[in-house]
Amino acid sequence: MDYKKTNAPTTTMTRNMADFVTETGNVYESIAIIGKRSNQIAGELKEELLKKLNEFSSRTDNLEEQSENKEQVEISRYYERLPKPTLIATQEFIEGKVYFRDLSKEKNEAED
Fold first, then answer.
1. Residues 19, 30: contact at Cβ < 8 Å?
2. Which H helix or E strand runs over 45?
3. What pTM was estimated for this model as a whole?
């Protein structure tokens, strides 16, 4: 997914907790789902960032000769300006773009 084109806010904001109950019926369950999705997003962003930074890395072994690579600095700054994974996951959850299953409910339905 392209997280650069998300409409998630870049700053933290106060949310109405009633918005999180509609999907699951439980605020805590909704927060757990958002947390898991946030971890997925953070992992994907980290992999993407490291892949881009490695393209510009120098292959020298001498630590004294290493200097700041301007391309790496610009890439890092760009990723720092993106919305945080928690904000992206929250926005996805509110928009109904997060898929989740409740295995305990599926077990109960299978037993009936």
1. no
2. helix 27-55
3. 0.76
Side chain identity at residue 66, one-letter code = Q
Q: What is the DSSP string of 74-90?
A: HHHHHHHHSPPHHHHHH
Query: Which tokens go with 61?
Result: 């072994």
The CA angle 54-59-62, to the nearest 5 degrees, is 125
The full set of domain ranges for the chain reads: 38-57+68-98
Residue 27 CA to residue 32 CA, distance in Å, equals 9
Sequence-distant (6+) residues with CB within 8 A of 37 are 89, 92, 93, 98
pLDDT of residue 65: 46
CA atoms of 83 and 74, how far apart (whole Å):
16
